[in-house]
Amino acid sequence: MDNGGNQKEKTAKDLIDAMEYANTEDRQLVTKAFDFAKKAHEGQFRESKEPYFFHVFETAKILAELGMGPVVVATGLLHDVIEDTAITKEEIEAEFGKEILFLIEGVTKLGKLKYRGLKRHTESLRKFFIATSQDIRVLIVRLADRLHNMQTLKYLSKEKQIRKSSETLEIFAPLAYRLGMRVISKDLEDLAFSFINPEKYKETQLLAKQITKRDMKFLEKFDRSIKKTLAKEKLRNIRTSFRVKGLYSLYKKLQRKDGDIEKIYDITALRIITDSVGDCYKILGIIHNTWKPLPGRLKDYIALPKPNAYQSLHTTIFTGNGGILEIQIRTNEMHEEAELGVASHISYKESNRGAAQSQLLWFKRFLPQIEYLKKSPEDGKTNGTTPDWVKKLGSECDNEEGEKLFDELKTDFFEHRVFVFTPNGDVIDLPINSSPIDFAYTIHTDIGKHLSGAKVNGKMASLDTKLRDGDIVEIVTNKSSKPTRKWLDVVKTSEAKRNIKSALKIKD
Questions:
Q1: What count of other Cβ atoms lies within 10 Å of the Cβ of residue 311?
Q2: What sequence ranges are listed for the domain HD (predicted)?
């Protein structure tokens, strides 16, 4: 996304033009918020010497480009007025209503705690997740705010650049990715990477440019060839595009492949976007009938979507001239969700509180531990139960305890994941290097407690087996079986560790 970081005059029309379905009422709300925010931030400037209003404008523009409705775009414009100007909550409510005030207060809670020391860091995370669980739109505004801040990070001190980039790589980019918002997470990763490790960033950038330059002529030629092949089969209503892997994603994959670029087949890829699921499979069959597929590289994320709802067919083929190419096939709806994730689930017209609240059911898939807090902007009261781990994040604790909690959160939520299956085909999402013991406790505490053995892909496997993407895991239980101390050396998830220690009566 373009950061728009220049002195060009900003207008409300720029935002409205980016809102595909804006009606008269929508335009009036956005224009009113635009004028209000511009006046409120008058005389304020950022480190870049630009008017502060430019930041809230660009945040709102990112939201408009994500397809958000007028309430969210207006919140983007107004998200800093309570914190950074003399405007009061009462004035916001009087001018824009309870809903927008509720969202602004949520974003403010997420954004204004300084990450100074571990105790503050865990407190920020606690507030982050509680506010997010109340309304998913709060998080989407916060991610847009963070994206523009990263786009203008060069104007801050070196210390702030490193701190904010670390936060972005550890929390914000993985969170955007886990919510399926790849269009945001990719930009966040690459921007943070450029500040955290500028030398490796430049090396990776140069390598990517060389590969892309080498591949592009071939991709364009192959694109024409594949369209011609599909047209012969009366598949003309398709569109194609080229995808270049993000720099940080490429850097991380190079590390996993011992720096061997020849082992990475998806630096560039061809996307084929069509109208129906049936056409996706038909196109796949035609491609495999025309070009030889690379064994073991076919992934059907349509029949078995990723836990973040990503759907697509992936195949890698030999192109016939010594080259290897990844092809991704999906419908228009799948493509929108692959780019926007949770944002695509919040339809443009969902400006009412109840509609947005329904999206929490979707978000709950990613934070199964959270028992959602239902806070009404009308009465400000919070109902529901906050789970122990959320309470712990905000409790007064020493640095050692805070560090342990933060490490648990990073392991359970932000690290690289593996997707394995139950015998019934349900997808179970686990941290990388998880074991059948982690799998068992994820299914149910009692299953973990009485685990006696495990089958992986139909064969008995040891309990310290490291599960891999696509494994089918079946747990064998016995009423007399109990956890052992050895399990603690094997498990990765904090849920499994806590339950094993509880069964063994081991205190932290």
A1: 20
A2: 52-150
Please give the structure tokens belonging to residue 327.
């092809």
User: Does residue 117 register a pLDDT over 70?
Assistant: no
Active site residue 83: yes
In this model, does residue 404 exceed pLDDT 50? yes
b or e along 469-508 (b: 16 or more beta carbons within 10 Å of the residue's beta carbon)?
A: eebebbbeeeeeeebeeebeebbbbbbbbbbbbeeeeeee
Set 83, 170, 203, 401: catalytic member: 83
Whose CA is closest to 144, among 210, 212, 57? 57
378 is catalytic: no
Element (H, E) at 375: strand 374-375
CATH tag for 198-340 (out of 1.25.40.10, 3.30.460.10, 3.40.50.2300, 3.90.550.10): 3.30.460.10
Q: What is the DSSP letter of 475?
A: E
pLDDT value at 425 more than 80 = no
The residue ranking higher by pLDDT, 343 or 36, is: 36
50 has a pLDDT exceeding 80 = yes
Give me the pLDDT at residue 134, please. 64
Token couple for 403 = 């560090």
Task: Assign domain 416-503 to a CATH class.
Answer: alpha beta
Catalytic residue among 14, 84, 170, 403: 84
To the question of pTM greater than 0.90 for the whole model, the response is no
Domain ranges of the chain: 198-340, 416-503
Token pair of 505 as six digits: 């009566």
